[in-house]
Amino acid sequence: MVxxxxxxxxxxSRSFKGLIVWCFLLSLTPCSLATATSxxxxxxxxxxxxVEYMYWSPDGLENVVMxxxxxxxxxxxWARAGDTVHVHLTNKLNTEGVVIHWHGIRQKGTPxxxxxxxxxxxxxxxxxxxxxxxxxxxxxxxxxxxxxxMQRSAGLYGSLIVDVAEGEKEPFHYDxxxxxxxxxxxxxxxxxxxxxLSSRPMRWIxxxxxxxxxxxxxxxxxxxxxxxxNSSLSQCNVTGHEQWAPHILHVDPNKTYRIxxxxxxxxxxxxxxxxxxxxxxxxxxxxxLQPFETDDLDIYSGESYSVLLKTSQDPSxxxxxxxxxxxRKPQTPQALTILNYKTNSASKFPLSPPPVTPRWDDYAHSKxxxxxxxxxxxxxxxKPPSTYNRRIILLNTQNKMNGYTKWSINNVSLSLPATPxxxxxxxxxxxxxxxxxxxxxxxxxxxxxxxxxxxNTTTGNGVYMLSYYSTVDVILQNxxxxxxxxxxIHPWHLHGHDFWVLGYGEGKFTKADEKKFNMxxxxxxxxxxxxxxxxxxxxxxADNPGVWAFHCHIEPHLHMGMGVVLAEGVQRLPKIPKEAxxxxxxxxxxxxxxxxx
Length: 597
What we know:
By secondary structure, the protein is mainly β.
């Protein structure tokens, strides 16, 4: 039976869960995007996707975006904990490969489905297909995105929402929910950006032109122009412009709504505020939190949150929802949409101006929010091991190499190999990557408060080989960049695991800083930020056989080498699908008929 879908390509029955109502007419069309079957161990959700470029107007200016089945952003995946997701992905791009990473899904038993080119699989060539099949083992707010080249900047992303298993309940109540996927958008193509970053000297295309909410933004005008003193700023007229009209949140008075937030930005750190409303933060990266109330929320690239919103304000008014840039001097206007109390028209503007985003470099504000994020309890979140087996300190620096600008970790800029690590390690192909053990620290005399005395770096692709089931500490150490008095925010994301965020600190990490660790209720996450000139301490258990990326989630930084690769228990894996390893040295083995097992 063919499932009915709305104009977003989402299952119709689920798209209205939580009274999510769009201000545009939804058309019912026959749809073969998704089918679902059930069994005793959960449902199977099958999707047939085609990735291709198309013309679209994300912010009112027509451009080329990456799409899935003609949709931008891509279709939302809805599932329950314990379900299996199967995506048959066909690359309809004419000149480039593609992969998709399922951000926050740990891929237990299926590391080849992680969607990281040169690490877990080969890129899918034009005209070819690949089957991603994996279990979503835990409820939470997740998303997916391209992980090849700079395809996230080009618009290859979508939401992945996992509800609790049938018969289970969340530790909080809500009457309805919304899913907001946040991204940034440039008018120059991702290819322009990629070439500029790889040029000598580097040519930076600048800050994004627009912030998008569910793929929609407004460029060259403002929904709130009538509040501005800038006479040249025009009022947006979004009537009849479905592609870039704001995604309005329609609510009933005196209800509680869950707002799921995911940031797939390529560059921008963001702050969310809702006029006259407080938010209760209850989930981060698929893990429950001790609820805390806040007026605004910082969210970095790669992070996800759930907040509860009570619609307890004057129901005869509407209210602004604003997203502004943090951590970089903002040259990108706020993104705005409206919280519409359905007792009045969605076209009615709020009485007050939009909330003001905190100053971009008010890091005290950011740190105060971050330090409130704590795990709910050890019934839902595992307790961290009391000690570690191995500690790896990763110094984050900006460097030069033969005139090129690079980002480096312990003075090595990551350059991925032609053969996926998963195949090279599993089958003992030592020529597949650099066998030199990467450094686990940096020179004690290095001054993180100043530009590097010697700015030169090198490239490499060695692997941190972790003992299976060992406890690993990672200290992310920030430092001054090439220019004086510059240290940037870096949000780091670990594939295949969650980690405990034990603490944050200023300056250079020392052994004495361990006394600052939160061992009682540290948040359990897959992404964490390092603040300028600071450090962040993480702990995780290497309990998931596979090869995993660990990197800065700012896409230009990763492109310029800001990441490392971890491996554990690879020999414990079952047979790896040959489709994942059909390139490089493993591809040659298949072509010669050798059995890779």
